[in-house]
Specification:
Radius of gyration: 16 Å
Number of domains: 1
Structural class: alpha+beta
Mean pLDDT: 97
CATH architecture: Roll
Number of strands: 12
Distance between the termini: 26 Å
CATH superfamily: 2,3-Dihydroxybiphenyl 1,2-Dioxygenase, domain 1
Largest sheet: 8 strands, mixed
């Protein structure tokens, strides 16, 4: 089984990604950190139901890695947007074996005392034009939500839109059971609806 862990908003800069998320949700993000393996950095926002939001971008002060960055960030351009959804599992290899090819190979990662493995495709691009979830497995019990302040924001619905949404939903159905995640046919994109302290907000 896999379950929703967090959502990622990408930007051409971390400031752009964080400002977009804060503007839509009406609350500021907290400091995150850097990911040395992929040359990226982030800021975070604690959500209800043991979820969190990540604003992420290429770190201009980090060396260029010799391989593709995760979340297809090497090709990111334009306004900040909701770029990815990330699901955790207890057995990453078993989850990858149960899905079609293309979700990537496990990469060991660490940020401070947080340690995890994430499946990253060789070219950085997830299946279904990045509309498929990234898969990860946390090492140990440490999790970002344990140290994030409550923002008062709650995910209502994550809409995954793609011309082949039905095929993506079918591939994930044996592993993912979450009424908040909805699949719709259409132009590739992600849309997350939240209840926030300032009303209903949508990240897209």
């Amino acid at each position: 089984m896999i379950e929703l862990d967090h959502l990622a908003v990408a930007g051409e800069s971390l400031e752009a990604a964080s400002d977009y998320a804060a503007q839509v949700l009406g609350v500021p993000l907290q400091s995150g950190g850097a990911h040395a393996v992929f040359g990226t950095h982030n800021q975070l926002l604690g959500l209800s139901d043991a979820l969190y939001l990540e604003a992420i971008a290429v770190d201009p002060d980090a060396p260029q890695p010799a391989y593709a960055r995760w979340f297809d960030l090497d090709r990111f351009n334009g306004p900040a947007r909701l770029s990815n959804w990330i699901c955790r599992c207890d057995d990453l290899e078993a989850a990858l074996d149960a899905l079609p090819e293309g979700y990537g190979a496990p990469v060991q990662l660490q940020r401070g005392d947080l340690s995890w493995r994430m499946a990253v495709p060789e070219n950085g691009v997830l299946p279904y034009d990045n509309c498929a979830p990234a898969l990860m497995q946390w090492d140990g019990d440490a999790h970002p939500t344990q140290r994030l302040e409550s923002s008062g924001c709650r995910l209502v619905t994550l809409t995954v839109q793609h011309p082949q949404a039905e095929a993506l939903a079918a591939a994930l159905a044996p592993l993912l059971v979450d009424a908040r995640v909805v699949f719709e046919a259409g132009t590739p994109g992600l849309f997350a609806t939240f209840d926030t302290p300032v009303g209903r907000g949508v990240l897209a």
